[in-house]
C-alpha cells in the first residue's frame, strides 16, 4: 500500500536534500518578511521625498495616507485610491500590487510549512519546520540591513554641500532599489520550487500513484522504495470524496477546522504586524523619541 512508501520516507535518514528543502521552503518566508518589513522605513523615505513641503509636519506622510498604504497589503486598493485621489501615480499602483503581494504572502505561509513537513522524516519534522519559519527572522534582518546600506550609499553619493534639512534627489531612487531587491529572492524561490518534485505524500495519497511517488523520492533522497510500490501498489480508496473544494459538503467536513486555524492566525497577525509596521509611530508617541530616531 501507499502507506508503506510513506513509512519508508518517515524512516529515511537526514540527507542533503532535507537541508535544501529547508532553504527552498524557507526562502519563501524570507521573501515574505523582507517585503513586509521593508515597508516602515520606505514610508519614511517617501515622506522625505514627497512630503517635504508639509508645513505642519514636515517629512511626515499624513496619517490617513500612511494607514491606507500599509493597509493595502491586506485590504487592497479600493480604500487606498479613495484616500490618495490625485496624488502621484505611483501610490495607487503601489497599493494595487502590495494587495496582491499580501495574498501571496498569506498563501505562502501554509505552503512553506507543508512542503517541509511532507519532505521531512518522522523524527526531525518539527525541527525542520521550525528551521523554515526561522527564515522569517532572517528576512526581517535583511530588510533592515538593505535599507540602511542603500540609504547610506545614496547619502554618500550625494553632494556634501547639501544641508541636513534637504533631501537629495537620488532619494527617490533609493526606496525603489530597496523594493526591487526584494524580487531577487522571490525569483530564486519561484525557480527552485518549480524544480522540486511533488511530495510523495500527496502523490501517493491524493493522486493514488505510489509508484510515481517512489520514483520522485528516489531522485532526491538516497532511499530505495520503488520495489515497495511495485510489489504492493496502492489501491484506490473505497469511498473517494466526490465533493468539490467549494461546496457545502467540504464546508461541513473541513469548515470548522479551517475557520479555527485561520482565526488564530488572524488574531496573531493583527497584534504582530500592526506593532511591527507602526512601531516608529508607537515609539515616537509614547517614548518621546525625536523624529530622526524613528526612521
UniProtKB/TrEMBL annotation:
Pfam families given in the database record: Sugar_tr (PF00083)
Residue ranges of domain Major facilitator superfamily (MFS) profile in the record: 1-295
Molecular function per GO: transmembrane transporter activity
Transmembrane portions of the chain: 20-43, 64-84, 96-115, 127-150, 173-192
GO cellular component assignments: membrane
Keywords: Membrane, Transmembrane, Transmembrane helix, Transport
Primary location class: membrane
Name this polypeptide is given: INORGANIC PHOSPHATE TRANSPORTER 1-9-RELATED
